[in-house]
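#onboarding

Welcome to the new folks! Below is a worked example of what a typical request in this channel looks like: someone posts a single protein sequence, and someone else replies with the predicted structure as tokens. Don't worry about understanding the tokens yet, we'll cover that in week two.

Example request:
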Amino acid sequence: MLSRRINKHLILCRIAPIMSLLLCYTSCAAFQTQSNQVRHSVQRAALSACCSSSTRAVLAILRKRTVRFHSKHPLRYQQPTAAFSTKLPCVAEPDVIAESGLSKWAFLPRKKDGTSNKSNLIENVLVCGDGDLSFSADIASELESLNITLFATVLEDEATHNQVYKLSASNTKKIGASGHRTIFGIDATKLPSYFGLESSDPILFDRIQFNFPHWRGKANNRYNSPTAAAILPIIVDSWQICDCCGTFPRQLLNEFLKSASKVLSPNGEIHVALCGGQGGASATSLQEWRGSWTASLFGGEHGLLLADTFPFEAQYRLSSHRGVDRPFSLGKDPMMHIFVKPDGVVEAPRHIQLCCRHELHVIVPDDNGVSYVCFIDQICSGDAVENIIQNIVPDGVRVEVPARKILDYHETHEGNRIAVFLVVYCSERYPGTRSMADEWRAKTEIEVAKVIPLRQNRAGRTVSHPFPYNSLHPEIKYNTKLC
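Example response:
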């Protein structure tokens, strides 16, 4: 009886901080229309009920986030959310993607009018790191009926795989019965050595798929870069952190995309399934983006465009949790990420486009004057600058000047009025990188200087690190002085 009372006491001690945290977060939402003073008083009351200093620290962060993002003044630029409202079938589902009319085993639409071609089926599929081979076994018969060749691969050798996974032999047999191949000992970061020009039998793949890549073992801190800021929203949303969301093996994703890009057919696609928030494409703040795997950033470095993302519902047996035959949690809203080689036709949805930004400072001429060929109103509106830059960047890169400000004489102390523009390069159909964007910035300054005098002490500054378009306007609202 005494032991039962002690156990109950221990359980209550553990639950109390969690319940207090839940109370604090709920109170923030309930009183978001009230004054900051009311919300803060409720939060302080909940904070005093918490038992541990770690819980107080989390609450302090939550309070800052609540004050900032529940402001009575809404964002000036609201981002579209329709792209996330409809759940599309993933590659593991038997249906047809209704939104585009495209079979799940066909290439992305390549026609300029956006129509699909259902007969444009892929010819082969390479599945990497398939755990106990359940995913490949699940799709084997369907691919056979479509005359699509499947290459199912795992990292372990055959003996080790049979020893670790109880379904290894049966899944291998099922894949073989459909006329497909199972290849053991394939490192997904070294695909060219097995299938590329370095191999004895080179082959290019129309689709390469890697579902939920992760490093084996409990923790590999050399390759993972977890951040509390990135994990915090997961705690709030689901009150648990799945193993694959708690670590960030960016190096694995980077090396896989580099490897896969070298054995991808010209119209081929790389499909990578990641837990919700891991890819970073839907990040609405730089903090959230930096805490993700920055998937589109790595893709761009290897000439790949993140062409689409959609919810992924895994309908096969999940295994290989830390290298053993055990299922793992995917967390909330896992997403499929589709990478392609740019062809000038496939265009990424705006909310996942990768961007770089920089400021451009030009000297505004006297009233009623002109600067070579540009009138003052053209300069101040940003139209002249935007038109010049759009002719500099390659086709497939969109230029925006979303914010601007005129600095008066007393603000510059230079005897001139200065027009400051925020210039943004967006990767629509072309995978830009920071180094590319900085080259465009240098050319921009040269070409603009031919038309409008530049503020020389602000020229030559490197562009920002890449970020998703969704985080652009919140960044303007909170962290720049431009409007």
